[in-house]
Structure formats: structure tokens, C-alpha cells
Prior knowledge:
Elements: E1 46-50, E2 57-60, H1 61-70, E3 74-79, E4 86-90, H2 92-109, E5 115-120, H3 126-141, E6 145-151, H4 160-173, E7 178-187, E8 190-197, H5 201-210, H6 216-228
Parallel strand pairs: 1-4, 5-6
Antiparallel strand pairs: 1-2, 3-4, 6-8, 7-8
Amino acid sequence: MEKKPNNFSSPHRPGAPTQRPAQKNGPRGKNEKDPYAINEQIRAREVRLVGDNVEQGIYPIDKARKIAAELELDLIEISPTAEPPVCRILDYQKFLYQQKKRLKEQKAKATKVVVKEIRFGPQTDDHDYNFKLKHAQGFLKEGSKVKAYVFFRGRSILFKEQGEVLLLRFANDLEDLGKVEQMPVLEGKRMIIMISPLKNSSKKDNSKKDAKPKEAPKEVKSSEESETE
């Protein structure tokens, strides 16, 4: 008796759905590594061209691609969410280099804001006050913000007006180096004032340190004395 072939031993059963390969590109047709759609990857029917090397305006996508091809450059979609999308005609690799360079410069310019805290008591004596004032001057010169506060412990909260006077005196003594960003405000058991450095204070201080004594006036003076002799 002949054995019938087992249909279930086949790797693909009849009627079973076949597995489709995953799409490598997204719906916009651009590679995931590319931050911008370019040329044939742009799906809009019309785009707005901007830049120095073209006549700015709205163009059908075919016309915009043709202009880019004539210039031997790329059509780059720089603002896909606009209506219509905004494009520029540039060399794509050069455009990416410029974007990375600009981002690097922005990160270099961005400075972290450092806040230094200085604590007072409501009845701080002059010696302790001057000691902390000197520290605050150093903080502001280096470009840091100063958060000064008076801490009220227990019933010392009754002296909150005295604490406010102390903080205002502190801000007044630092007016050459910093400006008041936040006036004294009571937060729980602390009365706080915020002082930010003046933009030119740290630069002036560094320029004084780096400045070299001028020798020219001394040489001129000595030559005049030699002539009179």
C-alpha cells in the first residue's frame, strides 16, 4: 500500500501567508541615518525654495529638482512640517558639515550656570559677614551666581526683617560685580536673594590679570632724561 506524502512536512503550508521582508526606509523614503530628505526622497508636490543661489518662491517638486540638477547640487528639505515644505539647494555633504559645525559652536558657547550658596544667620556679626562677602566677590568674578540666604531657626523667625536688611546690604556691597536677580523672598525657614554676575565683571578681572606692564613709557622717559643731560 502506497504512503501518501505528508503535506505538513513542507516548510510552507498551502494557504499560509508568506513573510514579507521588512522595509528599510521609512514612509518618507529616506535612510534612518539621514536627518534630511533630499532629491527623490522628497514627497511633497510643491516646495518653497530659499537661499542665495535661487530665486525664492514656491515651485512644483519636479521644477525644484530640475533647478538643483542644473546647478549640480542637491535639493534638501530643511523644514518638512511647513506648508509647503521649505527646501534649499546645496551640496548635501557640505550642508551636513555646516550643520555639525554650527551645533558644535553652540555647545561650546553654552556655559553651565554654577550657583554658589552662602548662608547667614539673622544676627551675623561683621567679621563673619565680611568673610562671606569676600567669598561672594570671588564667586561672581569667576562667573558663578550667588544664592545668599538667611536661615531662621526656631523663634529666630521673629527677626525676618533684620534678615532682609542683611541681604539687601549684601547685594549693595556686591553691586560692582553682580546684579540682583531675585529680591529677598521668604521660603519656609529661609529668606533668599539671588545675585547674578555682571557680564563684563569676570572679563575685566581676567584682563587685569593677563595685562602686562607697559615698558614703552619708561623707555621714552629715560631717553628724554638722557637728552637733557
